[in-house]
Amino acid sequence: MNISLQDGAEALQSHQTIMAKLSAPDPALDRLIKGHRLVLMDIPVYGNIGDLLIMLGTCSYLRRFAQPPSLTVSAYNPCFDAIRPDDVILMQGGGNLGDIYPIHQTLREEVVRKFPGNRIIILPQSIHFLHQENLDRCMSLFASHNDLHLFVRDKASYKLAEPLQDRRSMAPDMAHYLYPIGTRSEPSKDQLFLLRKDIESTCEAPLHPAHMTVDWYDILGSRHRRIIRFFRSLFKRARTPGTANAVAALWLRYSSHIAKLAERRFSRYGSVRTDRLHAHILACLMDKPHEVLDNSYGKNSRYIDAWTAESPLVTLSTPRETEQ
Q1: Are 254 and 220 in contact (CB under 8 A)?
Q2: 255-291 pLDDT, tens per residue?
Q3: Which domains does the chain have, with CATH numbers?
Q4: Alpha helices, DSSP H only, in 124-211?
Q5: Residues 271 and 288 sit within 8 Å (Cβ to Cβ)
Q6: Residue 5 has what pLDDT?
Q7: Is pLDDT at 59 greater than 70 in this prediction?
Q8: Residue 152: which region, alpha, beta or left (left: phi > 0; alpha: psi -120 to 50)?
Q9: DSSP result, 106-138
């Protein structure tokens, strides 16, 4: 189907209006963090570019609308002894609130137990538990903390967090605070296929052999994966607040470089087909038309239904629809 220049311009304008709303400051979050010393906990030190975009968006939000964190730490060495009684603890957002990725959930629950007097804010998450008893235990623990506030990215997660009552809020993913990401060149290729190769993949559609399918880790390559492992070793040895902040500052700069690798890859293509939530969000940040398949437990469709369904640049499909 041919799209006129006028229709294309109108679609872009509609999309940009939606993105402007999603990248506006959040009054509920601002009320909880302004004027407080902040600790940013559980930043990602691995090659999932989507989680790096969340981290970079979070830092952009704090820099623009609040204040930079006084302490930034990873799960490898959280520096609990450096956290003050009046610190507000920010837990990294994403899609790991559940029992699929235990390292992050274990840390999150440990923080809740160790710091009953601190305000704890869990930045926008999608909730997914394979086992009901794990969900019940987690929500009971969260509800027992009098100053824990949970932001979620979709309506299903909001319902699962019902035990928190008025201490739960809906909010878009923090990566939206990187908007807009411009491109410096016109696309030279048709469509990028970026599809999961992990536990959350459900892609059933056969791809034309002319197309090369990639995932985030393919964009990185072996050299960057070695450098990431080196940074992980640095975080494990960062036992003081000063050292942790110094390593985190270097990691943020390097993560920005990694994000630009993904941006350059996306900029070569006129459109994207993906089952990665943050490939969807990155395409949105770059004002690029794209098609989204769901992941294994509906995270992508739930997110799109909540925030980006009205964008004319976004198409949500099932895997079997892509065979047509």
Answers
A1: no
A2: 999 999 999 999 999 999 999 999 999 999 999 999 9
A3: 11-177 (3.40.50), 179-323 (no CATH)
A4: 132-144, 155-160
A5: yes
A6: 56
A7: yes
A8: beta
A9: HHHHHHHHH-TTSEEEEEEEEEE-SSHHHHHHH
